[in-house]
Amino acid sequence: MKKLIIHADDAGLSQAHNEATLRAVEEGVCTSYSIMMPCAWAYDMVRIANAHPHHDAGIHLTLTCEWHNYRFGPVAGAGSVPSLVDEYGHFFRTRDQLAEYAASEEVEIELRAQINYALKLGLQPTHLDSHMYSVGARQDFLDIYRRLGREFGLPVQLSQGLLRHVRNNHQRIVPLGSETLVDHVHLATFAQFQRRGIVAHYRSVLKNLPNGLNILLVHPAINSAEMRAITVDHPNFGAAWREIDHDFLLSAASHSLITELGIELMDWRSISAG
């Protein structure tokens, strides 16, 4: 069977993201999303999630902040996790910096704080995943991520392909308990964006979807002044890219193609129930 989760990363990053994410799951082909709890608009997105509990909403565990001018830091507070932040109390911009400086016990403090914050706000998360897959940057981070999933009774997004993407080539993952290993993760590249071929790539993914469990990772947002300010000098996953993702998810052509190809759309609830 060709099973596919179409998943929206980065809800809570901005108001433009929250608006686009809700539209993507209400009107589009998106089946899952996750919320960045350290970001300014996380509270609003949890409010939206609580008002629409039938949609699949996870926690996008965050340990890095890649933007130049839009800076944020740990939910636990910089003083509680000093190895995770720069001199201004913000998360490091890259996974490499995180892997070099972070103390594993402080990674656990911060990830646990993000989960508990979401729960305190009333979110009933369907899963855990990771911004920039930073939990895969070191083996001890990945072990913490998996342990928290078991402790809170939540599926975690596990992918050998994503680990290769973050240059973690440790031994092959063996799922434990209720963990689900995603067979294939699909996302567009900057080269495809430069060629204006993101939608063509997504359509190719759908037409050539391999058997097993697939996830298509997208980042829908409105190309607003807010998003352009957040992503300034960052065309990779920038505001224009994110609006293309938004439009793709809402297009009639995407709906039709998925139906025509007989692809089974999934979310984390259906995986857990299966």
From TrEMBL:
Organism (species): Neolewinella antarctica
Name of the molecule in the record: ChbG/HpnK family deacetylase
Alphabetic keyword roster: Carbohydrate metabolism, Hydrolase, Magnesium, Metal-binding
InterPro entries linked: Glyco_hydro/deAcase_b/a-brl (IPR011330), YdjC-like (IPR006879)
Cofactor(s), names only, from the UniProt record: Mg(2+)
One matching Pfam family: YdjC
PANTHER family assigned: CARBOHYDRATE DEACETYLASE (PTHR31609:SF1), YDJC DEACETYLASE FAMILY MEMBER (PTHR31609)
